Amino acid sequence: MTSRVTRRDFLAQVGCIGGGVALASRLGPSAFANEKRPGWPVTVACRDVMLKPTGQRDCWAALQAIRAEGVEALVADDMTLPNLFHPTEKYTLAPAGIEPLARAAKAAGQRITAFCMSNQFEARPDFEIKRCTQAARTAQALGVPAIRIDVVPAKLSQSEFLKVAVSAIKRIIEATEPTGVGFAVENHSNTTNDPAFLTALFDGVGSKRFGLTLDTANFYWFGHPLSKVYSLYEQLAPRVLHTHCKDIHYPASEREKRRPMGWKYTEYASPLGEGDIDFARVANILRKAGYHNDLCIEDEFLATLSAAAATQRLAKQVELLKRVRAEAAGH
């Protein structure tokens, strides 16, 4: 039998939140806020795991080298941020880590647009609820609007797992109500790339604070024809809280076919702007739906490149997203 995280449990777990909020107020309306941009105020960001291949001395220098404005930060089981690398600092979501993290990001002119968590709701629901609650408390203090989560079955059937996932996420939403932070399931793998499962999951949880990390390539990777992918963007845009922007360049003869899941992905994955997905169209869909968090690059093929080549490849994608942001703002 699992234990329920009550409001009293929540307050006991996050007793330091007043200090965190006080810190955020000293640092400004958001600890990571950039200057307000005209037009469509989304942040062009990058996943933290993409930064090490640039060869820079630390994660902040890497973000500056590619001219990004923000970062999605992976949260490990022990609440450390292992991919925000630095020669002398170890970043963590523990109470003592809030101020060093906030000051480092602010000094670099960066903001954290999302925390990223890999979850096992089927195997360890109580543990996941506890650490999601801890992450939301820190996110509130730092002005981080969304937490990307996994909703992936291990052994259960999809229908059985749906019940487990709905129950766990409802508990998380209730436990984190005072924070206002959103939780965003990513569409990936063989479950949440299924629109029927996603719809049932959103309906089952029934909260505006539970939405989507829209991975722009994953529906395409799953096998949906390109025209269906755009339809899914439009259908789900009102639920998007965070993004992963990546691209695939399939042969023209395959784009409108229903392909096997993952079909030749390593062969046809491409940088943004070199594949089949029209990011100006994606940006307009999101803008019209009222989306306002980030356009966050996920490039999974940097490891074989030189540091200079990896930096150039990421910088080119940052430039593209800034351009489509400006174009969307003008519509």
Biggest β-sheet: strands ordered side by side in the sheet: 7-6-5-4-3-2-1-10
CATH topology descriptor:
TIM Barrel
- Specify the overall morphology: globular
CATH class: Alpha Beta
Q: Give the class from helix and strand content and strand pairing.
A: alpha/beta
Quote the beta fraction: 5-15%
Question: Could you please describe the fold and organization of this structure?
Answer:
By secondary structure, the protein is an alpha/beta fold. The chain has one domain: Alpha-Beta Barrel (TIM Barrel). It has twelve helices and ten strands. Helix 2 (17-27) runs parallel beside helix 4. The radius of gyration is 19 Å and the shape is globular.
Quickly describe the structure.
The chain is of the alpha/beta class. It has helices spanning 7-13, 17-27, 59-65, 98-107, 125-142, 158-175, 195-205, 218-222, 226-236, 265-268, 279-288, 307-329; strands at 43-47, 70-74, 111-116, 146-149, 182-186, 210-215, 240-244, 247-248, 269-270, 294-297.
